[in-house]
Amino acid sequence: LTPGHLNPGSHQKVLMKTGLILLIVGHLNFITGSLVHGTVLRFVVTPGDIVSLQYITANSASVIAALLTISCGIAALMLSRYLAPAALKWALLTLSACSSLGCLSCLLGLLVAIGLTLGNQGRALLAPCAVTNVALAPVSRECPFDPTRVYSSTLSLWAVSLVLESMEIIFGIRCLLLALELLRL
Question: Using CA atoms, how far apart are residues 38 and 36, in angstroms rounded to an integer?
């Protein structure tokens, strides 16, 4: 059903389901972004390297967008319980628009990060390691992390984040349409 065909009771159910989905997806994306940052990117970022700065920017924006998505989910859940307050409807409209736009920009940033990583074959990810043989790096103290799987792990987590960002965009737009319907705009 499209939002235009819903009665107030259905609005509550759709808002509740959408809010729960946004909460879950937002938390998963937050955890994914935190894992990427904590396991790899905190060692990689150097102020003079444009690629590593792009990595940290895209990843930080992804974590911030996840927080916006979580806030949008909370607003949708609150609105599902209390449909009357106009301020809550406007808050949902604002949060869902910001969340959707933020997730879209993060999606594009992550695509660029993945493209850069594939293009330079992970050299920016392995730059902090001073060892020449990556197979011996886990037993070496010359690398701040285990580089044997950093390339595939980072790309895998970014792929998961891309899927989660897409879901956040879809359900954020759904909240936006519901808020517009409730505000009769």
Answer: 6
Rounded Cα distance, 69 and 67, in Å:
5
What is residue 79's three-state secondary structure?
helix
pLDDT tens digits in sequence order for the chain, 185 residues long:
444 454 667 788 999 999 999 999 999 999 998 888 777 776 776 667 777 788 888 888 888 999 999 999 999 999 988 888 889 999 999 999 999 999 999 999 989 888 888 887 777 777 666 554 444 444 455 666 666 667 778 888 889 999 999 999 999 999 999 999 988 87
pTM metric for this prediction: 0.79
In angstroms, the CA 106 to CA 170 distance is 14
Task: List the chain domain ranges.
Answer: 8-125+147-184
